[in-house]
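Bench notes, bay 3.
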Amino acid sequence: MTYIVTESCIKCKYTDCVEVCPVDCFHEGPNFLVIDPDECIDCTLCVPECPVNAIYSEDDLPEDQEQFIALNAELSPLWPVISEMKPAPADAKEWEDVPNKLEHLER
């Protein structure tokens, strides 16, 4: 089992989660974070740190977010590791409750 970053993170990209990760499994894209499934040790530390509840265990993933399992696995080798908190995008608050943001994902 691994943890998965889901759609809620798109365009918000809060990085509170990355500082608590003991194995640096987060990777940063232009407007989204992903978790490397091969690096994640299932410690759960990141889950309560996410202000938009975008991180789920693979076992608890909502059905409408299942495509993010493959997306995290696909993008993590392509994007650089992030291990320190950065400021959120200036418009992050505006995107927090917006549904169906997958079309806004920048690769």
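Next record in the batch:
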Amino acid sequence: MRGGDGAEVIYALRNSDTLARKITNELENAGQNVRKFYQKRLPSDPSKDYYYLLRKTPNNETVIVEYGFADSTGDDVNLLKNDWQTLAEAVVKGLAEYIGVPYSVKGDNYYIVVKGDSLWSIAKKFNTTVDKLKELNNLSTNNLSIGQKLVVTSPVKDTDTYIVQKGDTLYAIAGRFGTTVANLMSINNLSTPNLAIGQVLRIPSVSSSETYVVKAGDTLYAIANRFNTDVQTLKNINNLTTNNLSIGQVLKIPTNSANNIYTVVAGDSLYSIAGRFGTTVSVLKNANNLKSDLLSIGQKLIIP
């Protein structure tokens, strides 16, 4: 039929209509009207399916989904052009329900709420915090609804860039991505920590695969110093809301791809350099095997 409007789902003669009905329901929930779901027989042999695809996949439960008409006189054309991803996900939802598995979607920066989710469980899953999720999604309460789409990461242009937002600081961005101020300044050739809204920053490659098991007497401050990072970064990548630790607790440790080198200029001190790069004098001295606070112009320092 030409000029029709709406989706159709065809299922094989060998199967029940259960899967087709579930897909139909999800398409309707996604905003597409469904003309029908049905079976069709081959005129020359009514015991066989009309469609070749259904006939030639005898060991599978196969359905054909026609999402709409390209020459529709209704809204199919706009739906297929603008909402094709939503319609495709509707089919996945129907299939997930049919085979009995939880449905969720994880994209570059969003997540679809499923039954049993809470802001706390989602924050833990994506190594963020409840407050951050509420901020990103403009939520005033902790209430969620099934099917709700949540932004779970800040806007990122691609896998290694970040666009500066109002209120951002290098320190906050470094903590968010499990890196350091020094790394951000180095990889972006920044001479000062000042940022401008809309500025595009490269995000250095960071691996959080290294772990550390907390021992008696450990503190976040001591662990941060040991691994040349800071307390806030450790809290961010481990989704910690307090500084409390327990013996045997496993912590993710950010491992940056390379050290950064800073050349001392007139007027520099260990204190001023530490402040500039978001670290401490003791960390600088340990990283550079310094016995005193004295520096010389032109001296090269490793910035951890």
